[in-house]
Amino acid sequence: MKGFGNSTIIIPISLCFIFIFIYHLEDVLAAPSRHLCRPEQRDALLAFKNEFHFGKLHYYCELQRFDSHPKTKSWGNNSDCCSWKGITCNAQSREVVGLDLRCSGLHGRFHSNSSLQNLPFLTTLDLSFNDFYGQVPSSVGNFSHLITLRLQGNKFSGRIPSSIGNLFHLTSLYLPNNHFTGRIPTWIGNLSQLTELGLWRNNLVGEIPSSIGNLPQLTILAFWGNNLVGEIPSSIGNLSQLTDLSISRNDLVGEIPSSFGNLSKLTYFEASLNAFTGTIPFHLFTIPSLISIILSDNQLNGTLEFGNTSSPSNLESLSLGNNNFKGPIPRSISKFVNLKSLDLSPFDTQGRPVDFSIFSPLKSLQYLYLSYLNTTTTIDLYDILSYSKKLSILSLSGNHVSTTNKSSVSNPPSQQIYALYLSGCGIT
Ligand SMILES: *[C@@H]1O[C@H](CO)[C@@H](O)[C@H](O)[C@H]1NC(C)=O
Ligand SMILES: *[C@@H]1O[C@H](CO)[C@@H](O)[C@H](O)[C@H]1NC(C)=O
Ligand SMILES: *[C@@H]1O[C@H](CO)[C@@H](O)[C@H](O)[C@H]1NC(C)=O
Ligand SMILES: *[C@@H]1O[C@H](CO)[C@@H](O)[C@H](O)[C@H]1NC(C)=O
Ligand SMILES: *[C@@H]1O[C@H](CO)[C@@H](O)[C@H](O)[C@H]1NC(C)=O
Ligand SMILES: *[C@@H]1O[C@H](CO)[C@@H](O)[C@H](O)[C@H]1NC(C)=O
Ligand SMILES: *[C@@H]1O[C@H](CO)[C@@H](O)[C@H](O)[C@H]1NC(C)=O
Ligand SMILES: *[C@@H]1O[C@H](CO)[C@@H](O)[C@H](O)[C@H]1NC(C)=O
Ligand SMILES: *[C@@H]1O[C@H](CO)[C@@H](O)[C@H](O)[C@H]1NC(C)=O
Ligand SMILES: *[C@@H]1O[C@H](CO)[C@@H](O)[C@H](O)[C@H]1NC(C)=O
């Protein structure tokens, strides 16, 4: 009985071993065809590697602690290119489908004949944070399967190649922090799958094409730091999935379109340092997802209105300083109970009294800028310091400030103030 018992255990185990052995042998024998990348693609990658030198790693890579190293250094003749750093292959076809050379310290001019064009099956091309310069070859439009194209943080120049307009599968197009010139192309509206479009910090000119409104999947639209002019197309109000809109530091004019009140998923809206006029459509302030509205340093005028909203506000940052608003500060500012940063300096209340207790529900405030409100109301310093225990910067310059509220003095504020601006407040 013992022997029988043992053999019943041994037989399945040895069968199992044989099976595993055969399985692996088959694997090894099949390896040349199943596991090696295509020779012509390997050669294209090696040729691409030799088109560039190694330079310093991009400073941003150190900063972000990306997986930063010269990935192409490991590329050699005698191994499967699908196993090289930065390369992804299709599991069946062994075609190179992904090239991720972020932060690889590559330096040199891109030529139109770059052997990169011999990788026609790429779906991801990420050359971000290297030191490439020259024009992006128009042959980039031959990568008809491309889904992600990221070239940020290089020195690419010239126009954005129009052949990119043929890449209908693109969902992510990031070209920021380069030296691109010319206009934002109208054909951008043909890339109907785009979810992310980043063109910030280039030298782009002209108007924002209204065809942008044809990109219904867009969540991120970042054009800040260019030389864009003209008005914002109201078609942007069609982008119902938009979460991030940043167009600061351009020369845009006109009003913030009222259609922006329809951007129901908007989270970050940054449009400072332009020349916008008119009021802010109050519907904007009722979007529950909003965390940040940065519209300082424009020429916004008229009276400020925040609208009526029943849903709790998530707004953490509201920056409206250096505009030309006139009239009362809306009492409904009290509803933005999650504000950490509020900047209204200066704000022309036209000599009206200001009830500073409207700021008292803002218990999370860290930065509060209320300089030059053109009010005769005297602000009690200790009072306002008692509103938020987190306050670290308070600016009340150009207002009447008193420090005489005895009941507050006996109960002094406990927080650490880093900066207190009180010039021209009549304090001696
Ligand atoms: C790859 O092989 C070719 C020819 O065999 C040779 O000329 C080349 O220098 C090799 N490249 C590398 C990176 O080893
Ligand atoms: C690509 O073009 C550049 C300049 O136009 C030239 O120096 C280089 O030899 C060319 N490379 C190939 C592989 O043809
Ligand atoms: C690649 O694109 C260029 C310019 O767009 C075109 O002239 C060339 O025929 C294309 N090559 C291939 C292999 O498709
Ligand atoms: C791309 O968009 C332009 C207008 O911007 C249009 O004229 C053209 O037909 C579109 N091309 C394709 C292939 O859809
Ligand atoms: C996009 O917005 C424009 C202007 O606001 C409007 O005329 C157009 O009908 C909208 N298109 C779609 C598809 O919603
Ligand atoms: C917002 O969207 C609604 C419904 O889609 C539409 O009727 C309205 O005209 C839009 N408002 C603006 C200002 O575009
Ligand atoms: C706002 O400024 C614009 C442009 O300077 C002007 O046309 C408009 O009348 C101003 N509106 C108000 C309410 O002051
Ligand atoms: C907000 O509600 C108040 C009172 O309920 C009303 O007087 C005011 O007009 C409303 N404001 C807006 C912008 O709807
Ligand atoms: C302050 O308000 C008065 C109206 O009460 C107005 O005449 C004056 O120009 C305003 N001052 C500033 C600096 O806006
Ligand atoms: C003085 O401070 C107390 C407590 O913070 C406050 O209730 C009172 O309204 C203040 N009085 C004046 C005149 O500001």
TrEMBL record:
Pfam families documented for this protein: LRR_1, LRR_14, LRRNT_2
Residue span, Disease resistance R13L4/SHOC-2-like LRR domain: 163-375
SUPFAM superfamilies linked to this entry: L domain-like (SSF52058)
Alphabetized UniProt keyword annotations: Leucine-rich repeat, Membrane, Repeat, Signal, Transmembrane, Transmembrane helix
Ranges where the Leucine-rich repeat-containing N-terminal plant-type domain occurs: 39-54, 67-90
Translocase is among the record's keywords: no
InterPro entries in UniProt: Leu-rich_rpt (IPR001611), LRR_dom_sf (IPR032675), LRR_N_plant-typ (IPR013210), LRR_R13L4/SHOC2-like (IPR055414)
TM segment ranges: 7-25
Keyword Cytoplasm among UniProt keywords: no
Protein name: Receptor-like protein 12
Annotated source species: Camelina sativa
Gene of this entry: LOC104748130
